[in-house]
Design brief:
6% helix; 670 residues; 22-stranded antiparallel β-barrel; 5-stranded mixed β-sheet; 34 strands; mainly beta
C-alpha cells in the first residue's frame, strides 16, 4: 500500500512540474477566496484549507435533477461518494472513499441523525459544504470518513419570494413557497412544501428469493422551515432555525407502511468581544416521532402483524472560543461539545395492542477540542487540531436480548489532525494532511436481537470501536480562466472495522472484520469554453479491501461492501443568465459487493452483487416571463433522470426506478 500511495504522490508532483504558471485570474480568485466554515470550524478561505472541500451553492442546488426531492441526489456527482437509497420516501446513506470510515451529517455545524438529510427543504438551504477525509479531530466520533454540513439561509439583502409547482412520472408532484429578506439588522427566511407520489419500484429480491419485494410505494411528504438572524453589532448576532417535516408511506401492501414526524430547532449565538476574541454557542433540539407498520411478510401480505412506535431525542450543544493573533495570521479555536441522545422502540400487536418487544437506550458524548490555523508565511498555512471524546451508552433495555438490561459501556479517544497547504501563486496550490478518528458501535449493533418487525438482527456485544488513520495529498491548478485541475491521492486504514451486512437468511450481522484499507485517486477537471459553455467532471479510482482478519483469513483481500473501484461523472453545461440553463450529466459506478465474502451469485445462480451502470441525466430551465405584472420572472424547468432506463441498484434489494421525468414552474417575486 505504501508503494501505491508513493505512486499517487509522484503523479501529483509530476503534474505540478508540468503545469504552466499563470497570473491571477478572476475564476481562480473567486474560487480560492470562497469562505468555508466546516473544515476548520472558523470562517476560512479555501486557499487556506488543507483538505478536500466541495461546496454546493444555490446555483449548484438548482443545476441538476433531484428525483428523490432532496439535495442528497446531487452528491452522486461528487468525487469518491456513493449514495444508497431504497426509494424516495426513505433517507439516503452516504459513503465516502470506499466506506472506510463513517460520514456525519451536520445542520449549521451540529451533528444530527442522518435521516435529517431528507427533511430540510432545498428552498431554505443556503449551501452545503462537504469535507472528505477524517474530521474526528473537529467533529468527534463517527466522522472518520468526512462530514456534510447543511447551512441554512438567514435572509437576503432584498425581499424576495418564490412559488414552485411541478409533477412527473408515477404521479409524483411537489409544491413549495419560499420568502426571505432583511430589514435593518433583522434577516429572515421561510419555506413550506407539500408533495407525494404513487411511484413504482419493481424489484426482484436476489438475496433471498423466497421474500418478495414491493412493487409500489405511495407516499406524501410535507413540511415547513423558518430561519432568522438578528445582528447586535460588533460581530455579535443570534440565529434561529426551526424545521418541521411530516411524511407517510405505503409499500404497495395494505399493512406495510408508516408515518413519520420530525422536529429540529437550532439557536446559535455569536458574541464578539474585540478584534482579538469572540465566542459562539450552538444549541439544537431534535425529536422524532415515528410509526412503522408491518404485515406477516414472506408471501402473507394481507394479514396485519404489528406496529413499531419510535421516539428519538437529541440535544447537541457546542461552545467555542476563538482567538485571532499576530494581526490575523493565527486563529485558535477551543471548545466544549456535549450531546445526549435517547431512543425507544415499542413493538405492539396490530389487533390487540399487546407489547411484543421494547427497545430503549441512551448515549452521552462530551468532548473538548482545539483547532489552530497559522499562516507561517503568506503562502504557507499550517492547520493542527486535537479532540478528546468520552462516549457512554447507558439506560439499556432490549426485550429480546438474553440480558434485557445490558450494563452501560464507555469508550474514550484522542483524535489528532495536522495539515499543511502551500500556495505557489494564485493559480497553483498543494496540500497534505493526516488525521485519526474513531467510530463507536451503536447500541443496536451491540444488543438488538430483533425478532419482531423489520429484518432479524444478530447482536454482537463484543464489538470494538473502529480506529481510522488517513493520509491525503492534493494539488489544485488553474489555467487562467480556461480550466481547473484538481488531483487528490488518499490512503486510509481502519483497525477493527465494523461491518453490518445481510446474510443469505435475510438477517443483519455486525462484526469486526479486522484491518481494512482504502487507497485511491480523485481527478477533477473543469473547462470553461465560453462565458456560456462549460464542461467538466471527475474520476475516482479506489481499492477498498480487507487487509488483515486474524479471525477469518478467508476474508483478507475481499472488497468492502458498496465500494466501487471506478467512478466517473461528466457534465456539459450551458448557462445564459436570465434566459436558459441546461446540464447534461453522465454518471458511472463500477460493480459493488454486498456481502463480506464477495459472493456474487446465490445457490440458484441469481445475481447478488450490484452491477456497474452508465446513467445519463438531463435538466433544463428556461425563463418564460420577465418583468411582467408583479413578477420578476417565471421559469420552466424540465428534467429526465436516467434517460436510457438503465437497470441498476444503489442498495442491495432495490432497483433504481428507471427513467423519471419531471417538470416545474417557478415564479419569482422581488
Amino acid at each position: 500500500m505504501k508503494k501505491k500511495f508513493g505512486l499517487l504522490a509522484g503523479l501529483i508532483c509530476l503534474g505540478l512540474l508540468c503545469a504552466p504558471v499563470y497570473a491571477e485570474e478572476e475564476k481562480a480568485a473567486k474560487e480560492m477566496d470562497q469562505m468555508v466554515v466546516t473544515a476548520t470550524k472558523t470562517e476560512t478561505p479555501l486557499r487556506e484549507v488543507a483538505a478536500s472541500v466541495d461546496v454546493l451553492d444555490r446555483e449548484e442546488l438548482e443545476l441538476r435533477s433531484q428525483p428523490n426531492g432532496d439535495f442528497i441526489d446531487l452528491l452522486r456527482n461528487i468525487p469518491g461518494m456513493t449514495v444508497a437509497r431504497a426509494y424516495a420516501p426513505f433517507p439516503a446513506t452516504v459513503r465516502m472513499r470506499g466506506g472506510v470510515g463513517q460520514t456525519v451529517i451536520l445542520v449549521n455545524g451540529l451533528p444530527v441523525d442522518f435521516k435529517m438529510s431528507q427533511s430540510i427543504p432545498n428552498e431554505i438551504i443556503d449551501r452545503v459544504e462537504i469535507v472528505r477525509g477524517p474530521t474526528s479531530a473537529i467533529y468527534g466520533a463517527n466522522a472518520t470518513g468526512g462530514v456534510i454540513n447543511i447551512i441554512t439561509k438567514t435572509g437576503s439583502e432584498n425581499l424576495r419570494a418564490e412559488i414552485r409547482g411541478g409533477g412527473g412520472t408515477s404521479g409524483t408532484y411537489r409544491t413549495s413557497v419560499m420568502t426571505e429578506g432583511k430589514e435593518d439588522n433583522v434577516g429572515f427566511a421561510f419555506a413550506g412544501h407539500y408533495g407525494g407520489s404513487a411511484g413504482e419500484n419493481v424489484v426482484k429480491n436476489n438475496n433471498n428469493p423466497t421474500i418478495h419485494m414491493i412493487n409500489k410505494c405511495k407516499y406524501n411528504k410535507s413540511g415547513a422551515a423558518a430561519s432568522g438572524q438578528y445582528d447586535f453589532g460588533r460581530a455579535s448576532s443570534v440565529s434561529l432555525f426551526y424545521n418541521y417535516w411530516w411524511g407517510d408511506y405505503m409499500r404497495g401492501r395494505v399493512y406495510y407502511g408508516g408515518e413519520w414526524e420530525r422536529n429540529f430547532a437550532n439557536v446559535k449565538f455569536n458574541q464578539g468581544f474585540n478584534d482579538m476574541f469572540d465566542m459562539q454557542v450552538n444549541l439544537a433540539y431534535h425529536v422524532d416521532d415515528l410509526l412503522h407498520t408491518y404485515d406477516k411478510g414472506g408471501t402473507n401480505y394481507y394479514t396485519p402483524h404489528q406496529r413499531r412506535y419510535t421516539d428519538y431525542e437529541a440535544i447537541p450543544i457546542d461552545v467555542q472560543f476563538n482567538g485571532h493573533f499576530f494581526e490575523g495570521k493565527n486563529t485558535l479555536a477551543v471548545g466544549y461539545f456535549h450531546n445526549d441522545t435517547s431512543e425507544e422502540q415499542d413493538y405492539r400487536d396490530w389487533n390487540t395492542n399487546q407489547e411484543l418487544n421494547l427497545i430503549r437506550y441512551s448515549t452521552e458524548t462530551w468532548a473538548v477540542y482545539a483547532q489552530d490555523t497559522w499562516k507561517i508565511l503568506d503562502n504557507l498555512i499550517l492547520s493542527t487540531g486535537i479532540r478528546y471524546d468520552d462516549w457512554k451508552n447507558y439506560d439499556n433495555y432490549f426485550g429480546n436480548y438474553v440480558n434485557k438490561t445490558p450494563e452501560e459501556r464507555t469508550e474514550d479517544n484522542w483524535s489528532p489532525r495536522v495539515g499543511l497547504r502551500y500556495n505557489f501563486n494564485t493559480a497553483t496550490s498543494v496540500w497534505a494532511n493526516y488525521g485519526q478518528g474513531f467510530n463507536t458501535p451503536t447500541a443496536t449493533q451491540l444488543y438488538d436481537d430483533r425478532t419482531a418487525g423489520g429484518n432479524q438482527r444478530i447482536p454482537n456485544p463484543n464489538l470494538q470501536p473502529e480506529k481510522t488513520h488517513s493520509y491525503e495529498l492534493g494539488a489544485d491548478h488553474w489555467f487562467g480562466n480556461i480550466a481547473n485541475v484538481k488531483l487528490v491521492g488518499f490512503h486510509t486504514y481502519t483497525e477493527d472495522t465494523i461491518l453490518s451486512s445481510f446474510t443469505s437468511a435475510n438477517t443483519v450481522t455486525n462484526e469486526n472484520i479486522g484491518k481494512t484499507e482504502s487507497t485511491g485517486l480523485e481527478l477533477n477537471l473543469d473547462f470553461f469554453i465560453t462565458p456560456e459553455w462549460s464542461t467538466g467532471g471527475n474520476y475516482t479510482y479506489n481499492t477498498a479491501e480487507v487487509d488483515e482478519n486474524p479471525v477469518d483469513r478467508t476474508l483478507e483481500g475481499k472488497i468492502l461492501v458498496y465500494a466501487p473501484e471506478h467512478q466517473f461523472n461528466w457534465d456539459v453545461t450551458y448557462k445564459k443568465p436570465e434566459d436558459i440553463t441546461a446540464c447534461l450529466s453522465v454518471r458511472y459506478k463500477g460493480d459493488q459487493q454486498v456481502n463480506a465474502t464477495n459472493t456474487k451469485y446465490n445457490a440458484v445462480d441469481e445475481q447478488l452483487y450490484m452491477n456497474s451502470a452508465w446513467v445519463v441525466d438531463f435538466k433544463a430551465t428556461k425563463t418564460i416571463l420577465k418583468d411582467k405584472w408583479i413578477l420578476d420572472k417565471a421559469d420552466f424547468s424540465f428534467y429526465i433522470d436516467n434517460i436510457f432506463n438503465e437497470k441498476y441498484r444503489t442498495m442491495i434489494y432495490y432497483e433504481d426506478p428507471g427513467t423519471t421525468v419531471y417538470s416545474e414552474i417557478a415564479l419569482y417575486f422581488d
